[in-house]
Design brief:
The chain is α/β, with parallel strands linked by helices. It folds into two domains: 262 residues, TIM Barrel; 73 residues, Orthogonal Bundle (Arc Repressor Mutant, subunit A). 39% of the residues lie in helices and 20% in strands. The strands form three sheets. The protein has a nine-stranded mixed beta sheet with strand order 7-8-6-5-4-3-2-1-9, sandwiched between helices. The protein has a three-stranded antiparallel beta sheet with strand order 10-11-12, with no helix packed on it. A hairpin with a 2-residue loop joins strand 7 and strand 8. Helix 1 crosses helix 10 and helix 2 packs parallel to helix 3. The radius of gyration is 21 Å and the shape is globular. Probably acts as a heme chaperone, transferring heme to an unknown acceptor. Binds one molecule of heme per monomer, possibly covalently. Binds 1 [4Fe-4S] cluster. The cluster is coordinated with 3 cysteines and an exchangeable S-adenosyl-L-methionine. This is Heme chaperone HemW. Belongs to the anaerobic coproporphyrinogen-III oxidase family. HemW subfamily. Keywords: 4Fe-4S, Chaperone, Cytoplasm, Heme, Iron, Iron-sulfur, Metal-binding, Oxidoreductase, S-adenosyl-L-methionine.
């Protein structure tokens, strides 16, 4: 990590992602860097993980300070995975306490933990709330047992309302994740899941289309013809149904796949990613960003632990993202936001080609003409699912 971009002011905010790479069972569609207990040995065990993560925090802080970065406050923290709540709540509390002993939380900071509904109890959620967690994100995925079985999800859908109520009782915001486009899923199944979600009145919903990565159990099932991939028309119909029913229940979309009841219940941690802020990525395989310098950790927990035992940052590689690439990435990410992006903030939008493509998409109804007059590039409601295509046309 020898390239050192010019540091921002010391007052710049920081987001922190803490990857918990453990799952009770690996879901058939999942390609995340996760491991079951039987796959781990050496120093990469769940029992030793909190100490390893705290050790990495110390080393990352030292590396930042050596490069001239000294963040005054942490804006958001996100425990992701994997299943963070497979660890005892005291372990998550200890990692959060250690992190905030290094850099304090900003006033009103968002602290989220992902959870499976069957990996929490009333007592564990209360402990997390006492430790400073402000938001629970439950991986519901579907309310339909047959869809959950296809996804290899192990929780009982009847457990979700109970977990949501426990989080509510602890004073936490609640987000629910759903997946649509599971092989064999019907539009009636999608509707049942959305109706179950609105019945629980969460603060936030993430609705992701299923993407099957090549090296997964589900990909092999699809290649063997055991499952059938949903057609694009079904995916579009499912998204429109989800959006319409959520919006009828008082939600607003603020990113193509994310809906919140108010500005105050958006996921600020994800917004930090989409806006290109700086973040630490703690844990095996986690990514870190610092003013255009990106690095990523070794993936296997045992190798990660061994490097930390040698007082070495567990970094596998790094790159400095150039200005042009950063502009393209900003366009890709921020055009998915309901707020859009200021056109004068990107040089690439000033080219003749970009202006021609923007005019074309305004005529097609995928870009907002009134927003453009105000100097903002923003997709229309009809253009949400076509945002990636708009970007391709602008940058091609």
């Amino acid at each position: 990590m020898s390239t050192r971009p010019t540091p921002p002011s010391a007052a710049a905010g920081l987001s922190v992602y803490i990857h918990i790479p453990f799952c009770a069972v690996r879901c058939g569609y999942c390609d995340f860097n996760t491991y079951t207990a039987t796959e781990l040995g050496g120093g990469g065990s769940q029992r030793e993980y909190p100490d390893n993560a705290c050790r990495e925090m110390d080393l990352v802080l030292a590396d930042d300070r050596a490069a001239g970065y000294d963040y005054e406050a942490i804006s958001t923290v996100f425990f992701g995975g994997g299943t963070p709540t497979l660890l005892p709540a005291d372990d998550q509390a200890r990692m959060l306490e250690h992190l905030t002993s290094l850099i304090p939380l900003a006033d009103g900071a968002e602290v989220t933990t992902e959870a499976n509904p069957d990996s929490v109890s009333r007592a564990s959620i209360a402990r997390l709330a006492d430790a400073g967690v402000t938001r629970m994100s439950f991986g519901m995925q579907s309310a339909v047992p047959s869809v959950l079985r296809t996804l290899d999800r192990t929780h009982d859908p009847e457990r979700v309302p109970q977990a949501v109520q426990w989080a509510r009782d602890a004073g936490l915001q609640v987000s629910l994740d759903m997946i649509y486009g599971t092989p064999g899923e019907r539009i009636e199944d999608v509707a049942a899941t959305v109706d179950a979600i609105t019945a629980m009145s969460p603060d936030h919903v993430s609705a992701y289309s299923l993407i099957v990565e090549g090296n997964t159990k589900m990909a092999r099932q699809l290649r063997r013809g055991e499952l059938e991939t949903p057609d694009p028309d079904f995916m579009a119909d499912a998204y429109e149904l989800i959006a319409d029913r959520l919006e009828a229940d008082g939600f607003s979309w603020y990113e193509v796949s994310n809906f919140s009841r108010s500005h105050d219940t958006r996921c600020e941690h994800n917004i930090a990613y989409w806006r290109g802020a700086d973040w630490w990525g703690i844990g095996p395989g986690a990514h870190r960003h610092r003013n255009g310098l990106r690095s990523w950790n070794v993936k296997h927990p045992s190798r990660y632990a061994a490097m930390l035992a040698d007082a070495s940052l567990p970094v596998q590689g790094s790159e400095t993202v150039g200005r042009e690439d950063r502009e393209v990435e900003r366009l890709m990410l921020e055009l998915r936001l309901a707020d859009g992006l200021a056109m004068d903030s990107l040089d690439l939008l000033g080219t003749d080609h970009a202006r021609e493509q923007i005019d074309k998409h305004i005529r097609l109804g995928t870009l907002d003409a009134a927003a453009r007059e105000a100097g903002v590039l923003r997709v229309t409601d009809e253009g949400r699912l076509l945002a990636d295509g708009v970007v391709r046309d602008i940058v091609s």
